[in-house]
Amino acid sequence: MRRNRRTKLIATLGPASQEDNVVRKLFEAGADVFRINMSHSSHAVLKERVVQLRRIEAELDRPIGILADLQGPKLRVGTFAAPPVMLEKGQSFVLDADTTPGDATRVHLPHPEILEALRPGHRVLIDDGKLLFVVTDASPKRVTIRVEVAGAISNKKGVSLPDTLLPSSALTDKDRADLLAALDAGVDWIALSFVQRPEDVAEVKKIARGRALVMSKLEKPQAIERLEEIMELSDALMVARGDLGVEMPLEVVPGLQKRITRMARKLGKPVVIATQMLESMILSPVPTRAEVSDVATAVFEGADAVMLSAESAAGQYPVEAVETMNRIAEAVEKDANYIVLLAGQRTPPESTGADAIAAAARSVAETLDLKAIVAWTASGATALRIARERPYPPILTLTTSMQTARRLALVWGVHAVVGEDPKDVDDMARLGARIAREQEFASPGQRVILVAGVPFGTPGATNMLRIAFVGATG
Fold it and tell me: Which pTM does this prediction carry?
């Protein structure tokens, strides 16, 4: 099942998309990767979902990527004796370690690490930024804050800290248990929420030990301050615009999205744009014009994937949301400006043989109007290097590893096929040309360019280019 676009689609599973027939329709509508949100999934549900997706994968004979999204630390205030409580601008309010129900002057904050980390001048946001406070006095058991943006506060509202670096890991006890369960279930990608520092990523990678790749969700100002270090350690990035837009001014988020997308492409790391992409389709069968433009902007920028959250997990029109996103991506990629914009953002290849080969393959394929770049890969590294070039011809990736094919379901432009390693260079050319014909990338008499590493099966040894004619048989 070949897609007519290069940008990949991620669909979140949930109550609206739990039946086999709906999940199958989501895949047929365009979903390449399915996200399981561990904020709302037990270990039993996780395992059931993975088994379901692997069964559908076998039925459709196409690799399906699975992303397990860890919840991360959820910071919330305690409860009130008589909620909601109205707070007025300029008044003082207290967050403390006292478990007594709160009132108009104070409330329990069940996170001692926050009380210890807050300092005078730090901002505190509550209820998705609807309420804004500034710390005026801080001690390990009691923090006084001044109301800057007033409103009503009630039980268990979320707390955001744009100026405060918490000493705790991004990996909570729940996340650690969820991570181990996801690895045991056999997911392909782990999304790490609320990354603050590169050490957060290193901790998860140490536990994963290559059984799944790690995607860092960029949603905190602290992560932006150490962006390059975090990106270097991560296998992929997600621009999680929801929390990022709470803790940072909304008007800076679009610029950050472009910056992160271009940095990720330069590094050859997949990048996902997420949150509120087609939000109105939770309740409506059609999106707003602004949402269509938002998705189109991410595609024009060359993002590897765009993601649906509640739209496919809990919305009334999950299949229609995927179909709509698929149509937007297809339309953008047919636009004359698309290839021009991608080419304008291209950076010089790194000074390695593999990067030089990938850049040369793109150049030769475009100059000679070849129908596909056929890449043999064991680990997926060759496909990632070619995808970094954002070539005009499609990327057909051949691998012996189903795990590699599933991981590449996230990567821009890559269509992965699982098969056997070729016996020699001539066999490689014959197999590559045959599969390009069978997968409808090229017709008899047309040409493709083959990229591989010799000796075969050696990860990271991309060192060969060959042009091959596609025959009618064989």
Answer: 0.93
